[in-house]
Structures are given as structure tokens and as C-alpha cells.
Write a structure and sequence with these properties.
Layout: H1 14-20, H2 24-35, E1 50-52, E2 61-63, E3 68-70, H3 85-97, H4 104-111, H5 115-128, E4 141-148, H6 157-160, E5 172-179, E6 185-190, H7 195-205, E7 211-214, E8 228-231, H8 247-262, H9 272-284, H10 290-300, H11 308-312
Parallel strand pairs: 4-7, 7-8
Antiparallel strand pairs: 1-2, 2-3, 4-5, 5-6
Helix pairs in contact: 2-3, 3-10, 4-5, 5-9
Bound molecules: zinc ion.
Zinc ion binds near residues 44, 45 and 47.
Length: about 325
């Protein structure tokens, strides 16, 4: 058996996408198949006692149990969106295939929606992927933290680490882990990078007894008793000692920071967590075929909501 890998993944060209989704009906059929794999059910109450509505007004389906109209959007992150589902299909395609992220300006131009709509669409897709981190770490695992934004890159890392947290010189701290077994990543914005915060992150994500690699011993001293902890000392110029390194999670940070600089110019601190979620999600499905990546996003829409009011609150 051959392990699935990058060389086997199957992409979809923009032309193929347009052929697969020539009209609104094809897009709706795709969402319905993914959202209702076991048959149509009501997005309000889950009942399967439903029927089609003549002329599909105000919505295509009626639930006999809760006496409500519903569509394939009901009870998902695209509830209340009035955009054609075909535009959502194309947005999902651009979202999963743009390795450096897709800006709201690009989506605005490509889909002929306003930039504000494009911005909201992208945040809804990020909300959709909110749970796509690591599920059951097998290890060994690399744990590292980084800072996004601001201008402290010229400082030595040891110095930077004393300037922790958001609001300090415009930098926001992000902590992350990469499972060397399956290369999956999880990451999130944290208030600071003190020992208690890093310990909390490790304990929440990694089972005791797992081998954990970090780049500095001191901040992770608290986990030493419960984990097989090995550190390389970056501030002393040591980067790799045998298998003890954090190169995997650091290359993930590099992708995140390139996007921060190139695509988004600056992530707003307020929404940085959602951007991190986006890059984690894309990283974790990157070996899958594009069709599967798109289906993964569509399936994850079910049961989640993000209102514009919540987003700008
Ligand atoms: Zn119902």
C-alpha cells in the first residue's frame, strides 16, 4: 500500500470547476449531498419528515415537525447569506487552493461581490474550519511559540521572549504544536508566553508521556515531570540536536508570516485567531485532493454560525 502524499493529490483547475458547477442547481446539489449524506433533514430541528415546497418559496423545503421552512443553508455558517451557492462553491475553492490565503480584495474581484461581503465570506469560512486542529496527538510533538505583527524581528529571540503578549510593541503571541506522526498542526493566539500559558496549551493538546520537543527549556520546565521533554537552546545558537528540533512548527510559522506580509499586509489583532485557524485548516488537509478539501469545508459548515454582528463586536 502506498501512503497518500503530495504526489498523489488531485487538483481541480478553474476550468474544471466551472464545468462541474455550471449553474446554481449543480452547486445546490453539491451542498445538499454533503450536508445531508443520510438524506434531507430539517436544519432547525433535525427531523426527516420534510417535503418540497411548490415554487420553492420562500424556501425549497418544509418541515412537518417544527412547521418551518428551510434550505440547505439553514443551521450552517451560510445561513442568511443571500449569495448564490455557486459563489460559495467558488469561494471555497479559492480558500482551500490559495496556499498563502485569499484576500477579501481578490475575492471581491473574482466573485463580483462587494469587498465587505467578501471579507464576511472569508470570516465565515474561517469559522467553519474552527475545529480542524489536532485530534488525538500521537507524537512525538513539536511545540513552539511565535509573535505576529510589530517590528521586533531584529531582536534576539531571548530578548523578544521578555516582551510577551498582545499590546506589547504591537506583537501578538501565537502558540502551536505539530505532530510528527501525521504532520498535523494546531495553533492559537495566547495572551502571553509565560510558563503557565505554555503549560496549559501542552496539557490541553498532548497526552502525558508523549515526547515533546521545544526550543527553550525554561518556559516549558513545568511539563518536564509528565512529558518526555527535550529542548534545543536557540539562544545559545543550537537549532538541531538529533531529532530534538522544532523545524516543523517553525516552517508553519514561516508560512503564516509570509501570508501576513504578502497577502493580508497586516492581520488585524482582533481577528488573528481566525487567520491562524485558516492556516491550520489548510495545512492539515494539504495532502488531500482538492475535491475532498472542498467537501471538508462544506461539511464543516453544518451546526456553526457567525453573524456579522458577532464578527464586528
Ligand atoms: Zn424542523
Amino acid at each position: 500500500m502506498t501512503a497518500p502524499g503530495k504526489s498523489h493529490r488531485e487538483g481541480i483547475s478553474l476550468l474544471e470547476l466551472a464545468e462541474r458547477f455550471p449553474d446554481e442547481a449543480s452547486a445546490r446539489a453539491w451542498f445538499e449531498k454533503i450536508h445531508w449524506p443520510d438524506g434531507r433533514h430539517c436544519g432547525h430541528c433535525g427531523s426527516t419528515d420534510t417535503k418540497e415546497v411548490p415554487n420553492e418559496r420562500p424556501m425549497p423545503y418544509w418541515c412537518r415537525d417544527c412547521q418551518s421552512y428551510f434550505s440547505v443553508r439553514t443551521g450552517t455558517t451560510i445561513q442568511n447569506s443571500r449569495l448564490p451557492l455557486r459563489k460559495w462553491v467558488f469561494a471555497i475553492y479559492l480558500y482551500v487552493t490559495s496556499l498563502k490565503g485569499v484576500s477579501s480584495m481578490k475575492l471581491h474581484r473574482d466573485l463580483k461581490v462587494t469587498q465587505k461581503t467578501a471579507w464576511f465570506m472569508l470570516h465565515r469560512l474561517r469559522e467553519t474550519w474552527d475545529d480542524s486542529g489536532i485530534d488525538g496527538i500521537l507524537g512525538p510533538i513539536e511545540v513552539d511559540e511565535t509573535f505576529v505583527g510589530g517590528k521586533r524581528k531584529n531582536m534576539p529571540k531571548a530578548k523578544r521572549k521578555t516582551l510577551t503578549g498582545r499590546g506589547t510593541a504591537g506583537k501578538t503571541a501565537v502558540v502551536g504544536a505539530k505532530d510528527r506522526f501525521d504532520n498535523r498542526v494546531t495553533a492559537r493566539v495566547v495572551e502571553n508566553t509565560d510558563g503557565a500559558t505554555l503549560e496549559g496549551f501542552v496539557r490541553e493538546n498532548v497526552d502525558p508521556g508523549t515526547t515533546v520537543f521545544t526550543d527553550e527549556a525554561s518556559a516549558y520546565r513545568r511539563i518536564a515531570s509528565d512529558y518526555d521533554h527535550e529542548a534545543v537552546n536557540h539562544s545559545a545558537g543550537e537549532y538541531v540536536r538529533g531529532t530534538a528540533h522544532t523545524n516543523g512548527i517553525e516552517s508553519f510559522w514561516a508560512t503564516l508570516k509570509r501570508a501576513h506580509k504578502g497577502t493580508f499586509h497586516h492581520f488585524s489583532v482582533k481577528h488573528l485567531d481566525r487567520y491562524v485557524t485558516e492556516f491550520v485548516g489548510r495545512h492539515n488537509v494539504r495532502d488531500e485532493d482538492t475535491a475532498d478539501q472542498m467537501a471538508d469545508v462544506a461539511a464543516s459548515m453544518v451546526g456553526k454560525r457567525l453573524t456579522y454582528r458577532d464578527l464586528i463586536a
